[in-house]
Structure formats: structure tokens, C-alpha cells
Fold each of these.
Amino acid sequence: MKIFKLLFALFMLASITSCKDRRTPKVEYMPDMYVSIPYDADDAEGLNGNPVNSKPVAGTISRGGHPSYDIPDTADGYDKAKAELKNPLADSEKNLENGKKMYEIYCISCHGKKGDGNGYLSQVEKFEGIPSYKDRDINAGSIYHVIMHGKNLMGSHSSQLTYNERWQIIHYVEKLRADL
Ligand code: HEC
């Protein structure tokens, strides 16, 4: 009986200490779950040799999605956005609050806490010509356009922000502008 106990103890010891060895690769069960196979949607071979229809049909909008922004980065485009785009989100506490949060991440470094153009990057003269919002004749549509395309030294912020976050920031920028 003793020998069994001893063998059992040795077995447990071996199985515990063997876990310590991090250099040898572990057994992967179902490796597809770790490393997915990147099927190419444009490739007619696709899954199992059949075409994969995973691209949205042109002109359609996914459920819960938003139309892509197709107003061009031109002076006419700017005027069009300014004349036509309206903020689809309510000027609510919640939207303003999240707008402020996003503004303080993405815009404050240049435009400053109050929107007067006196952010840190302006103070250290890293960026010049950052305007006070008060001095610009802007509205929700033009601000959206500038977030999407940027303007001169200001780059586009379209990829950092979701559709809703952009419009929430716009509510906040308009509030800052009114308070200046
Ligand atoms: C790297 C610095 C920088 C950051 C970050 C930045 N801006 Fe700007 N922004 C500028 C500069 C510079 C201008 C002046 C562009 C011009 O008119 O030449 C400007 C101009 C603007 C204008 C006025 C455009 C007009 O139509 O006259 C708005 C509105 C604006 N920014 C909003 C934002 C918002 C919203 C964010 C954050 C999502 C942001 N900016 C982030 C540098 C910045």
C-alpha cells in the first residue's frame, strides 16, 4: 500500500512541477479557436471553395449602422455640411456629459478646457493658429465636417470617434462656444 502512496505522491509532484516549464509549447485543443483562418471576402475561393457574401451590398446600411460620410473635403463640401447637417442627438445631460469626456480626450490638448484655443499644445507652441471657437462662424454641420476631414493643421478625427461620440462632442463644443 505504501508504494502506491509513494507513487501517487511522485505522480502529483511530477504533474505539478511539469506545469512550471513555460518554454515548451502546451497542447492546443482546437487551435482554430485561438488562431482564426483569415478568409478573404474578395476571394472567390472563400469558405469551402464557395464565394463568401460577407461584404455589404453597395448603398446599404447595416442594422444599427450609420450612412458613410460622403461629403467631400472641399470648400463646397464644407458649405454643404454647414447648410444641411443637423445634430441627430438630443442636447441632453447624458450626451453633453459624454461629449465633454470625449472632448477632454481628443480636443482639449489643442483647443483648451474652455475652447479658447489655449490648450497645452498651443501653450508650448507645438501647434499654431488654434482658434477660439468664439471667433469662428461654425455650426453643428461644419464642426462635423471638420471632425471628419480635419482642416489645415487639424487632422481628421473620424477614426478615433464613433458616430454618436462625434455628435456628442459637437453639443459640447457648441456649449463651450456659447459660454465664451
Ligand atoms: C492637434 C491640434 C488639434 C486637435 C487635437 C484638434 N484640433 Fe480642432 N483645430 C486645430 C487647428 C490648428 C484649427 C484651425 C484650422 C484652420 O482653420 O486653419 C482647428 C479648428 C477647429 C475648428 C474650427 C473649424 C472651422 O470651421 O473654422 C473646430 C470646430 C475644431 N477645430 C474642432 C475640433 C474638435 C471637435 C476636436 C476634437 C475631436 C479638435 N478640433 C481637435 C487643431 C486641433
Note: The two ends are 87 Å apart (CA to CA).
Amino acid sequence: MIRLVGILVGLGFTFVVLLAFGSGALTVMGQGYLVEETAEHAFHEEAHMPAGGYSFDGLMPSWDLAQLQRGYQVYKEVCSACHSLDYVAFRDLAELGYSEAEVKAEAASWVVPGINPDTGEASTRPGMPTDYFPSPYANDIAAAAANNNAIPPDLSLMTKAREHGTAYVYSLLTGYQAPAAALVEEFPDSVPGPGLHHNPYFANLNLAMAPPLTSDGQVTYADGTEASVEQMATDVAAFLTWTAEPSLVDRVRLGWIVMGFLLFATILAWLAKKQVWANAKRKD
Ligand code: HEC
């Protein structure tokens, strides 16, 4: 009787596992179907990493602090005109290798909303390390009005919010180009309308952001690195990877430590089992 119950429970588990696998497989296949459904999708390109890759990509990640500082500079001098960075505070910049005094000076170089202590009216003041990065627009309506009705999204978590995060941001920034001739021929409607720009890495091929990085030397890097468009895109994508997951490097390192510990605990348990059962004899 017990054996029968055991078999039934086993069968039940197997059924649930198969069901879960089957529904997952169907979902994946369904996505494939949807992608093929829009024929324009053939002109969409997969995001790719910059040629040299990144120090934080792979099994032994680390942050390249000089690169993150350059990426921050690109954000500050270019992207911050339109994009907010709501979840990052100036004090977080200490993690990029800036000293306390540098963080203070950096914070003070930004203007944040404040209150006039004499009148109680809304005003502005220089930032402090505890402040968060200010938004470039008063609200979404102002943001949309200034950008052809598209609201520039907050960039703090962008590399987490899009498939192939870091590679996507890099590819998007370097991917602006004229629509392929075949696309124009097949889908005349897909040519970018007024205020839109063609980019095969963007989900629907045309977006409201004009190419933000257009010329080499647009930013003068504090560390003297040559600021090619490629370099600026590489660096700002690295910076946005850090803003989205500052603990990435620690997370992977901790993972290795936990794996090591689990391996050690397994060996210990196996030795203990051998020891405990060393003198036991089989009865049958
Ligand atoms: C002149 C304003 C402006 C500047 C400067 C700008 N952007 Fe944008 N950005 C936009 C707008 C508007 C959108 C929304 C586009 C849309 O949805 O069609 C956008 C969208 C994006 C997106 C999201 C695309 C998506 O998948 O939804 C990313 C990523 C991005 N910008 C990164 C950057 C980076 C990095 C910089 C700096 C190098 C930058 N932007 C500079 C206006 C700007």
C-alpha cells in the first residue's frame, strides 16, 4: 500500500515537472512566433558588446573605476540634459573611487531643488552628497513637450530593464543609421517620421531620441582618454550598468565563496557519513 502511494506521489511530481517544462517551452515558442509575425522584425538587430568587452562581464568580474568615472562624465555632460537618474545619490559616487572632498565638490556642481529659508518658497541650491541626482524636467508633461512627445526614461535601472542591458545601451548609442534600402522598399511606412530617428537596435526601429553621441571629442575626458563616439558609448553603458547594479561584482564574488563553502560542507558531510557508518554491517 505504502509503495503504491509512493509511486502515485512520484508520478504526481513527474506530471507537475513536465507540465511546468511544457508550458515554459510553449511560451518560448510563442515568443518566436510573435517575432516572426511582424516582418519588419527582420530588420531589427541583436545588441552586441563593444569589441574589448567589459571587466565586469564574465565569471570573475571587476569594476574598471577609470571607465566608470568616464561614463559618469558622459552622463553628466550629455545624457543628463534629458535623462534623470532617480535612484542614484551623489554620495554613491564614492564607489567610483572619488574621495570625500571630490564627491562634495561633484555634488555642489549640480543644481538641485531646494527651499528658500527666508521666504519658504521653492528655489534651487547646489547639491550635497546626500542629495539624489536632480531631474532635468519639472515633470513628465514638460519632458514630453521638450522631446517630441516622448518622455526620456529614467536611466538608473535601464540596463536591467532591457534585454542584453549593457550591450543594448552600447549598441543603441552607436547604432543610428539610415534605414536599410530593403526596409524602405518593403515597408515605406517604417521610414522615420518627423522627430524620429532610425535605429535597428530599438524595438520598433524608430525612436524619438536624436543620436546623443555624434562627434569624437564631444566630451573632454578628465583622464585624457581619447573620447571617440565608440569610447563614450562604451563608458556610459558601463556607468549605467553600475547604477543599475552597484553590487554586481560583490554578488558574483559572494557566489563563488558560497559555492566553495558548499563544496567544503559536502566533502565534510561525506567524510562524516563514512565515519558514522564505518562499523555498521548489513543485516540481510
Ligand atoms: C535631447 C534629449 C536626450 C539626450 C541628450 C539623450 N536622450 Fe536618451 N532618450 C531621449 C528620449 C526622448 C527617449 C525616448 C525615445 C522613445 O521612446 O522614442 C530616450 C530614450 C533612451 C533610452 C531608452 C531606449 C529604450 O529602449 O526605451 C536609452 C537607453 C537612452 N535614451 C540612453 C541615453 C544615453 C546613454 C544618453 C547619453 C549619452 C542619452 N540617452 C541622451 C532623449 C535624450
Note: Residues 28 and 207 are 27 Å apart (CA to CA).
